[in-house]
Fold this sequence. Notes:
The protein has 15 helices and ten strands. By secondary structure, the protein is an alpha+beta fold. The strands form five sheets. It has a two-stranded parallel ribbon with strand order 1-5. A two-stranded antiparallel ribbon has the order 2-3. Strands 4-6 form a two-stranded antiparallel sheet. The longest helix has 18 residues.
Amino acid sequence: MYSRFISVLAVLLPVAAGATGYPHPTSAEAHAVREVREGRETFRYATFGDEAFWGDALGLHLAIAGAANGGVGPGVSPATALGVGLKVDVEALPRALQRAIARGKVNLDDPAVTLELLKLDAVVGVTGFFDERGRITSMGIQCALCHSTVDDSFAKGIGHRRDGWANRDLNVGAIVALAPRLEPVASLLEVDVATVRAVLNSWGPGKFDATLLLDGKAFRPDGKSAAVLLPPAFGLAGVNLHTWTGWGGISHWNALVANLEMHGQGTFYDPRLNDATQFPVAARARFGIVRAERDRVTALLPALALY
């Protein structure tokens, strides 16, 4: 839907701009179209440098690859990936591959096929990084991982992107729990790795605990998981306190998520996180003031918010 809408805008708005006397390269309408396209690109493909955390630190790419492909463990096959709610963008699949999948000629139980899908940028919200020999060396995630799904037009979990819809099939906790090196998270929370894995596996599909790495509270007073439903990312224009926490508007939340939840490399400021009583983990880690040596987040946020 979004891609068709933007395609129509791309044709009509420059024409309208010319009809009203605005020069095409500088018209507000043409600029808006460019910004929306840039925001879509950021939403779908920008990792903000978070591969330094998910891949380099946690080694999640190794669990995806499996021992047979230079990683660890059994690996994550396409069937397993779809089973935990990951989605595949059918538009990124070559026609020949689509036909082969439809005819049952592709082994969806082979983790090597997952790596090939990553090379095609076909796994929604996940980017794989590969060396010159085709071996996966790291991985990062995008906004689209949690806040995009597909229309299942090709098969269950495979179809055209539906940006902004919350992926309520996605089992974020179970995916992260596969990482072979969870020590950085355990150290941050001051618990052992076994506890981290138990907490992650308690979330279930469609849920995420955005405050775990801020307050360290994994469970509610009634003993149930503190994870909440993943929110949608559309229809929020003009809603100043739109997030589940009510902390701020779109721009603030995008900055918080990109820097603190996705673990991107950017700049973030929120002195509320310096309160060691309410947010002991965040205060200890100094999440209230974050400054990366190279900011790979801030410049992308305006277009992202517009999209």
